[in-house]
Specification:
Length: 113
């Protein structure tokens, strides 16, 4: 679609704790997949857990639009799968809201036009 998408790491921040993707005995953080799981770590002190969170920025405002963890991450296998989780989707002609993002070319999965 002609987008430039920057990728960022959450390393060294509280992001993974805020969005329940890190379980840590020291922080007593044992919530995962929306429920308390006190035995989550077993013999480990901390661990990273699978999860996705999507956000939408409108000017200076950022909205948390979607999160899933555990088995909810199994369905993603391509860039299109990730775009389908976002608030604006793939920005194909039939999607709403129209005109929200620049349209460099049509919805062609071969990227040939």
């Amino acid at each position: 679609m002609g987008w430039t998408i920057p990728w960022y790491s959450s390393y060294g921040s509280d992001f993974n704790y805020d969005y329940q993707a890190t379980a840590d005995k020291e922080r007593r953080q044992f919530v995962y997949n929306y429920k308390e799981q006190p035995d989550l770590l077993e013999d480990e002190d901390s661990t990273e857990l699978p999860g996705f969170s999507c956000f939408l920025r409108d000017g200076d405002q950022v909205f948390h639009t979607y999160s899933t963890w555990a088995r909810g991450t199994d369905t993603t296998g391509s860039a299109y799968s990730f775009l389908d989780l976002t608030a604006l989707g793939r920005q194909e002609d039939w999607e709403e809201p129209k005109g929200r993002a620049p349209k460099p070319h049509g919805a062609d999965p071969t990227f040939s036009d």
